[in-house]
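Tutorial, part two.
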Amino acid sequence: MNYSIVLTMLTGVAEHTTCKNRRKNPKRTGELSEAAFVLKAQSLGFLVSKPWGDSEKYDFIVDSSVDSGGDSGSRLWRVQLKSTEVVHARGYEVQPIYSVYSSVYGRGKAAYTAEEIDALVVHIRPRDAWYVLPVKAFAPAKNLRFYPDIECKCARWENYREAWHLLRAEPRQTAGD
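Running the prediction step on this input gives:
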């Protein structure tokens, strides 16, 4: 039996793509980079897991033991992903920080530490460029600038471009290990 209905009102939401001055939804662009990260990391042989919710300081757990021949040892990396499309002073900026709240000091921002994450992965969306930085390489910086399009003296992060091999090495060891 076929049924038909008449919609008295149809609603929907769409992003206005012709307005150049309007800022894109940062949550949505972050989600697109997360999907791209899962595809990229899994295509390189990593297992990728996402923690339930968004309360952790890291976005993903990356397991590199798949290609290690089954030897023992910790191969789990806490990875924070940051993506950007913003150009400032000829470079793409990311801020490896997160929001904090204290009843004494109020709202603020804090930089990631080695106790919170093992690596920062930066996705430059317009260039589909990926940077893999161990936390010790950038902490405690609160602003990083990447130059995937130009050669310049200040391009200090270029050694970490497509440096996925760093996630195949042992992550940092804690005092209890």
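Helices lie at 26-43, 135-138. In part three we will examine how such features are distributed along the chain.
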